[in-house]
Each structure stands twice: as structure tokens, then as C-alpha cells.
Write the C-alpha cells for this entry.
Amino acid sequence: EPEVTQTPSHQVTQMGQEVILRCVPISNHLYFYWYRQILGQKVEFLVSFYNNEISEKSEIFDDQFSVERPDGSNFTLKIRSTKLEDSAMYFCASAGAGSLYNEQFFGPGTRLTVL
Amino acid sequence: AQSVAQPEDQVNVAEGNPLTVKCTYSVSGNPYLFWYVQYPNRGLQFLLKYITGDNLVKGSYGFEAEFNKSQTSFHLKKPSALVSDSALYFCAVSRHNTDKLIFGTGTRLQVFP
């Protein structure tokens, strides 16, 4: 069964450093999303991406964040200068393009720890 | 703005007993409603969805959910709980078919042998 994969599973970084979180969505999917879950809190939407551009972004997704689909398979989230409060589990999701609705499939997540 | 409420942080149930995990929502227009489950150190796994049609939807692992428009609820149910059902359950809502998901705070289900 196809699945969304994410690397690395755990990333530890120093405050102020740049990190890139990588995702490989399901191959025939067209819609891509990033969410995050701060420990003990709910899952929050960050950004959605379709046709090589951002469809929607939340207020969390400020100028320190960017997304890219550099080739036909990867979907990346970059945090330019990490802050302590960026520590969270980051989930990538993808969805196909169906006639009614295709549910979002989530990857296993990347745990980001900012020291 | 859309929102989801899961009023119970934790639900405890004995194995073999029926379980219910509650969810209410607020959204303008017709809601798209979902349940996801999260096992420890795993991502979110899709369980079931309501888009339109029959108010009772059936999903994976024997779970079902009932959409109630008048009460704006979408409670998750299972007739007979298993210990392996113990996990974190999230209800989510969206406004259209490519929209972001808005999640509730999650309910931890603990099934005791």
C-alpha cells in the first residue's frame, strides 16, 4: 500500500539554524500539506500546496517558513532560523484529486527539537 | 471560522464493551468530517469520513461514526472495544474537498483487559 514517507524521523538543531524537513508524498497525489503538533497539543495546519504554489497558509507560517517541491517526488519544509517554539512534530500529508473527496494521508512525522 | 471540540481528554472502557468518542464541530456550509487515529510514535491514520449521504458511516477496524446535523456532532463508535484500540483519536473538519483539516484536541482512548 502506498504511503507518505518523511525524513529524518528526528532532527535536533540549535536555535537560529536552518532545517529542512523532507517528505515524499504518495506518487499520484496532487495536493500537499504540512501540519505540526507541539507536544501535548492539537495538530495545527501550516500550509497547503498545489500546482507548485502555496494554496493557503496559516498565521504560524511566517517568513521563516518556506515550502518547495524541488522535483517530481519530494516536498520540503524549510525553517530558515529556528526558534525554541518551533520544537514540535511536523507531519506531511498528501491527497489525490477525486470527484468527491480524497482523504489526506499522513506521514509518520519528523520530531524537531530546537535547543 | 471552523472549529472542532472533543470534550473528553480521555475515555476509559473495558474490552468488549461499546465505546463512544465525542466530537462536535462548527463550520459554515456543509461540513466534511473525519476521524484519524494516532498510535505512539506513528503518524495519523485515516479511520473514516463523512462527506454526504447516509448519516452513519463505517470505517476501518470496525469503527463507525454518526453525523448529526442538528446537534453538529460526529461521534465515533465501536460496538466492542479491543485493547489494541487504545490510542489517540482526532476528529477533524474541512470546508471543501482540498481544504486544510482543522483538528480537535484529541481524545485518548484506553481499553482495559
Summary: The two ends of chain B are 41 Å apart (CA to CA).
